Amino acid sequence: MIDLTMDMEQFDCPFIDTSADHEVAFSTMHWQLDTAAEQLETRLIAEAPDRWELDAGLTALREHPNMSDYRLFSKQDGTAVIRTVIEETNAMSTITGHDGYITGPFHIEDGSELWQVGFDDEATAEEAVVDLEKGNEFDIERRSELELDQLFEIMNHADAASTLLDACRDLSEVEEETITTAADAGYFESPREATLSTLADEFDVSTAAVSKNMRRGEKKLLRSVVQALEDLN
Question: Is the pTM above the cut of 0.85?
Answer without folding.
Answer: no
